[in-house]
Amino acid sequence: MYWTTESRAFLSAIHEAGGTATMRDIRHRTDLTEGQRQHQFEKLEADGYIDVDRVEGLTSNGVAMKVAVLTQAAVDDIQRGVLSGEAKYSRRASVDVTELAEDVQTTQQYVSEVLYPRLQELQQLSQRIDELEAAN
Questions:
Q1: At 48, phi and psi to the nearest 5?
Q2: More confident residue, 14 or 113
Q3: Residue percentage of the chain with pLDDT more than 90
């Protein structure tokens, strides 16, 4: 398996949690994004390094939370030093809500001023092509 920094950080978080970690545990122990965590769940499970379970009642919305459990293959590789690579991770950084709001506003403006007019132009061109083809 090719070990990325994200893979090592994810595996380290589970290892530091005693071999079993919820998605919440991993989120608090790393700075991996939601997408990166989901990818690592899939990747490490497919490669036989974790077993994935779901536990009811750990979330406020009633959705079962993912739990990663290290397999023997993971434990063996950890003992061989797989985590000794550059597994740089830290607690999740705080989010600047004002900055995110500005980014969302900028994105919405771009979509409404640039992308949406282009979509309308494409729809008009497509309709015109259909009319020309029907005339022939």
A1: 80, 20
A2: 14
A3: 50
Please spell the DSSP secondary structure of 94-133, one letter per residue.
PP-HHHHHHHHHHHHHHIIIIIHHHHHHHHHHHHHHHHHH
Q: Is pLDDT of 1 > 90?
A: no
Give phi and psi for 124, each to the nearest 5. Answer: -65, -45
Long-range pairs of 17-24 with CB within 8 A, sequence gap ≥ 24? 19/69, 19/70, 19/75, 20/67, 20/68, 20/69, 20/70, 21/67, 21/68, 22/55, 22/58, 22/65, 22/66, 22/67, 22/68, 23/65, 23/66, 23/67, 24/58, 24/65
- 10 Å CB burial of residue 32 (0-12, 13-18, 19+) is buried
- Give pLDDT, residue 109: 87
pTM for this entry: 0.59
